[in-house]
Amino acid sequence: MSAMIEIKNVSKWYGSFQVLTDCTTSVSKGDVVVVCGPSGSGKSTLIKTVNALEPFQKGDITVNGVSVGDAKTDLPKLRSKVGMVFQHFELFPHLSVTENLTLAQIKVLGRSTDEAKTRGLKMLDRVGLNAHKDKFPGQLSGGQQQRVAIARALSMDPNVMLFDEPTSALDPEMVGEVLDVMVQLAHEGMTMMCVTHEMGFAKKVSHRVIFMDQGKIIEDCKKEDFFGDPEARSPRAKDFLSKIL
Ligand code: ADP
Ligand code: MG
């Protein structure tokens, strides 16, 4: 299987504070990898290095064979193929749902308005929100806004989707509808790297689980091993799991 994301010996500092230490992992095409670990362990930072939202000082990352750290790389082009969904939905509040879905397609991919609309509304349908196409983000619930954010990312035809705690800012009753969309994506074969504490999701659809602590990848193993063989886990992973499971 070919690696869609290859992270090799990546280290990163904020000033003198080392936030990532020698992180190495890879995500194959079609793999769903869950990244978990305590708050402040570097999960968001690691995932943001993948689409160059955060620079890093050592190591190398390639996405679909393209080096993220290479000064010659066309980063807007690379980012357009890496969908990113954050904890806070980050839709444009002054634009309608349809405009949110089409803007980057038109500006970054150079699609016509019609083309972008067709694609955007298809993705909106996929997340079950066609009826809301003319609304503004503020008129939607948090769960609906997050589903629009996912549809917006999918409208760009990404090779890979990155999620950073997409459900942790949601009211509990809305978590399920967002996870359902992510489960469906996983089943359709999307390559996904998901920072989440939703271990039900991890158990259901992930292929691998990465556990981070203090900027290091402490565990990187098959889901079956992570959940099925607690005795083999590091003390820190065990402690973390005992708190969230
Ligand atoms: P996580 O997502 O696992 O909670 P983060 O990647 O957000 O962790 O942060 C890892 C560490 O880096 C934390 O100690 C955090 O305080 C620190 N950090 C994050 N962003 C910055 C920044 N822009 N400048 C300095 N330190 C930062
Ligand atoms: Mg985080």
Automatic annotation (TrEMBL):
It is a peripheral membrane protein. SMART domains: AAA. One of its GO terms (cellular component) is plasma membrane. InterPro entries: AAA+_ATPase, ABC_ATPase_HisP-typ, ABC_transporter-like_ATP-bd, ABC_transporter-like_CS, MetN_ABC_transporter-like, P-loop_NTPase. The keyword Signal does not apply. One of its GO terms (molecular function) is ATP binding. Keywords: Amino-acid transport, ATP-binding, Cell membrane, Membrane, Nucleotide-binding, Transport. The keyword Cell membrane applies. It is found in: Cell membrane. Its main location: membrane. It comes from the Bacteria. Pfam families: ABC_tran. Residues 5-239 form the ABC transporter domain. Belongs to the ABC transporter superfamily. This is L-glutamate ABC transporter ATP-binding protein /L-aspartate ABC transporter ATP-binding protein. It comes from Rivibacter subsaxonicus.
